[in-house]
Amino acid sequence: MVQATPFLLVLFLALGAHGLSAKKCNLTGSWKNDLGSNMTIRSVNANGVFDGTYHTAVTATSNEIKVSPLQGSQQRGPNQKGQPTFGFTVNWSFSDSITVFTGQCFVDDDGKEVLKTMWLLRSRVENIKSDWKATR
C-alpha cells in the first residue's frame, strides 16, 4: 500500500489540477466583432438574464444607425461548465427589424474570451406573400 500512495497522490493532483484550470468565460463587458460592431453586456444576474446595447457597423437600410437595446439569457444550472451558451435579441432602434443571436462564450488557448454566434434577422414586410424575403 505504501507504493500505491505516491501514484494515487499524483493521480489526484492531475485530476484536481484539471478542475482548477477550467476556463471560465464571462459575458459581461464590451465586445467587438470582425466588422466593427460593438456590443456591451451589463451584468448577468443569478438567473442568467442580461441586457445591454448593440451598435452595429453593418446595415441594409439607408437610415442612420443608432445604438439599439438587447436582452438575453445565459445558460445556467448544474451542467454549466464555464464556457456558457447564450442567446439574445436586438430590437433595432433605426429599422423595422429584430435580430436574434445564439452562441457560446469560449476561452481560447491564449486565454482570450471569444463569442461565437449565429444570427437571424427578421424584417417587417407588407404582406404574407413577401414572407419568404423577410428573414436573413
From TrEMBL:
GO molecular function: biotin binding
GO CC annotations on file: extracellular region
Signal peptide annotation: 1-22
Record's subcellular location: Secreted
Domain of life: Eukaryota
Keywords: Biotin, Disulfide bond, Glycoprotein, Secreted, Signal
InterPro entries found in the cross-reference section: Avidin, Avidin-like_sf, Avidin/str, Avidin/Streptavidin-rel
Cysteines engaged in disulfide bonds, as pairs: 25-105
Function: Forms a strong non-covalent specific complex with biotin.
PANTHER family the UniProt entry points to: AVID PROTEIN-RELATED (PTHR34399:SF3), AVIDIN-RELATED (PTHR34399)
Similarity comment: family membership: Belongs to the avidin/streptavidin family.
Self-association state and partner proteins as the record states: Homotetramer.
Protein's name according to its UniProt entry: Avidin
Lineage: Eukaryota, Metazoa, Chordata, Craniata, Vertebrata
